[in-house]
Amino acid sequence: MIASGEEDRGDTMSMLELRRVSKVHGQGAAEVHALREVSLDVDPGTMVAVMGPSGSGKSTLLTIAGSLEEPTSGQVLVAGQDLATMSRNDKARLRRQSIGYVFQDFNLLPGLTAAENVALPLELDGVGARRAREAGLRALDGLGLADRASNYPDQLSGGERQRVAIARAVVGDRHLLLADEPSGALDSANAEAVMRMIRTACKRGIAAVVVTHDAQLASRADRVVHIRDGRIVDQTVPAPGPDSLLGQDR
Fold first, then answer.
1. Which of 47, 81, 88, 164 is 20 to 30 Å from the Cα of 243, by its Cα?
2. How far apart are CA 7 and CA 12, in angstroms?
3. How do residues 161-171 score in pLDDT, each as one tens digit?
């Protein structure tokens, strides 16, 4: 699981591959290099935590990996598909069917209840309303929100909205989870529930990339990538310990 790809991974196909990806905003003296030749592989069933100071390029990495933004140069592959060769409609379908995205601002639809927000991606993919709702309720229950399923986003706290967004991201048959500070609005107990849900998703084969400032969340990852000034400067494997082993539940 080395970003350079030098380690022999056998026949395993990476769910996400970034190959020398750069992103430049502006031109001339106003140029800002958000990413500089970043290479990263994330295999199915693994969680990679991305850490770094504010402005280091972490969120840009996620938006490019999720096809929400195009790189200036380099190549991005999701499940072996080169995003540069895909039409806008194909990318939208890929995001809806295969990628779960947790945004910092939640992006919940205000006219839908918590359960309806979580079930919506499944219904858009043709899952029957009853089955979609049952799956949504299970996901909410896993994050301690079963009693809030009928509430609308403006009736929920910030932490509750964050958990609804996470439930929506992991429900269904997703293959890649991209999460931007998923525990940022949560207390320690709810952050622990989120960690467990992400690990459970990985256990069933999802590849996860989690941007975080939370060292406890990062300790649950299979690999921690450190980014600074748009470059990956280090990669580490968290040392196993009683707390991390409990959180990984693997």
1. 164
2. 12
3. 988 998 999 88
